[in-house]
Amino acid sequence: MAEAAAASAMRPLAPSSNRQINALAWIGDVVRHRGTLGALRQYTTAAIALFRDLTPGRRKSRYGDIDYDFDHAVDTTWANVPLRTRIRELLSGAQYQASEPALFHRILSAVPASPEGFTFIDLGSGKGRTLLMASDYPFRQILGAELLSELNVIAQKNIGRYHSDQQKCFNIESICSDAREFEFPGDRLIVYLFNPFPDYVLRTVLKNLQKSLSATPREVYVIYHNLVHEDIFSSQPWLREVCRTHQFAIYRAE
């Protein structure tokens, strides 16, 4: 498994022309859903936040989550994401942020089901920290899907080099994919969403998950961390809230 993960990690980035096509498609996507003025407002707000993050004080504070990387010899922090990638994040309407380890484990402990036999899925998995942390639990398999190819390559490298005495699942995979095109496996699922994409993408992802459940009924939990678009979840009658804090909510599919 380690050899396969290492080989996967060596796959090259997509050609620059493909990245340019992706950027144009993302801009078109935002304009279709927000309108021209809405897209301009979104990109202006995101650009201001980006420039604020580049100030010396903010850049220093962003390294507050790097202890996990030192402990496990991986690169999962959001502090050293290159400027080019940050700009591509801005165009896609998303931003990578690694989950805080203690909070992540607290969230999983709040799921009212044992992880045995479940597949853990992180949509918008970035550099893969959540995938690595989830491997401390005896999941059947762990899957991540990340839109940006450069972040996915880093995630694959992290999977190949990761080692922990607490690791219980070694079936880990990270793929480069638009979450709207992700095909949910027919297993029992725990789906993790750290507010990874805009509202219109989230609606499509939940619609696809509902279709998958209709085709193959099974036990499914959805974790929503950072409750920016919680109104979308409350509008889904097939999702029943089973746990809520000010930081996250857990839903069970009915």
Protein topology:
Layout: H1 2-9, H2 16-53, H3 56-61, H4 67-72, H5 83-92, H6 101-110, E1 118-123, H7 129-134, E2 141-146, H8 149-161, E3 172-176, E4 188-193, H9 199-215, E5 220-225, H10 230-234, E6 239-244, E7 248-253
Parallel strand pairs: 1-2, 1-4, 2-3, 4-5
Antiparallel strand pairs: 5-7, 6-7
Helix pairs in contact: 1-8, 2-5
Textual characterization of the structure:
With 254 residues, this protein is an alpha/beta fold. The protein contains ten helices and seven strands. It has a seven-stranded mixed β-sheet with strand order 3-2-1-4-5-7-6. Strand 4 (188-193), helix 9 (199-215) and strand 5 (220-225) form a beta-alpha-beta unit. The longest helix is centred in the N-terminal third of the chain and has 38 residues, at 16-53. The model is unreliable at 1-17 (pLDDT under 50).
**Proportion of helical residues:** 40-55%
| DSSP strand count | 7
SSE pattern:
HHHHHHEHEHEEHEHEE
The Cα radius of gyration reads: 18 Å
Q: What is the overall shape? A: globular
N-to-C span: 35 Å
The percentage of residues in β strands lies in 15-25%
Mean pLDDT: 85
The major sheet is characterized as: 7 strands, mixed
- Model regions low in confidence, pLDDT < 50 over at least 5 residues: 1-17
Strands side by side in the biggest sheet:
3-2-1-4-5-7-6
User: Treating each run of at least 4 consecutive H or I residues as one helix, how many helices?
Assistant: 10
